[in-house]
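Re: the request from the purification team.
They wanted to know what the chain is likely to look like in 3D before they choose a buffer screen. I agreed to run a prediction and write the result into the notebook, where they can find it.
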Amino acid sequence: MKKENSSGRSVRSIAGNKIFQLVALFVVLVIIFTVWSALKGGQFFKITTLRNILTSLVVSSFLTIGAGCLMISGNIDLSQAAVGAFGSMVLASAVNAWHLPWFVALIIALLLCAAFGAFNALLVTKYRFPAFIGTLAMASIAKGLMYLFSSIGKGGQASNVAFSNKVLSFIGLGYVGPIPFSIIIMAVFFIAYGILMSKTRFGMKVTFIGGNPEAARLAGINSKAITYILFINCSILGGVAGIFNACRLGQGALTALTTNQFTGLTAAVLGGISFGGGVGGMAGAFIGLLILNTFQIGMNVVGVNPFWVNVFSGVILLVALALDFIAKYAPARRIARKSGEGRI
């Protein structure tokens, strides 16, 4: 009897595990789109579709990692995609108009992106701006500067700045054997940040700050320094996303990352990272991103109107936020209700 009870508890614990739930949801999605596409005379479950899904993850993955780390600490950055687009335009201008070596152009682009992150942190920590407001304002500044870069040396605004460089082209489109180079870099980043956030003292501090800021302060954790690191990291990874996008297209564009504005946040929340902070990790964020992109590509494979795909993606974000709210605040409400009943 005891063995049956213990086995039942272990099954329930596995079923209640967030990663297990996400993997199960991913499998269900694959099955649905495989059957749906077969009914329409197509084929979803094949190697090319899997490669397309993984390739489509690359740009969004860096946004997800940066946004996820910041959200675990209890903060948010709405300027990340705009900063990334700005970084792509700086890279393109540095290579095309300034004729700088590719690695110098990369460094300049990432340093300027880091400056945006530092300024975001300054607004939030020193001047007490709500992160939502401060980073939204920085998004507008980044977009304005991006438009300025697009007009340097042209006498007028250009919608994109094209460039040609073999190394940068390899970064965006090259292969190492049968595997795209960009997918290898994405995997390295997810593994590295996964270890950082789950296995190191820094990651524990970030989670502690997000879960209980006052307790973290009393424990002597320098939350201000960590906030600077996380905001700068978020902007740099936004720049990396913009650079990979530019390397893939061979140009920096004013509309770069426009469709990725909330992809990173959606994937992070869907993957179990709470908007309230203190909960989540990179494994869940990756599977959340995988689910999101599988859904989008699957809808395209079965021929659903792309505008409806955007609508459904927004619904997924709403559902993820609702589940996050329920998971975070429902237990506290139940405890408060029970304590109130006890007093009566």
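For the purification team: The chain has one domain: 26-333.
Please add any questions underneath this entry.
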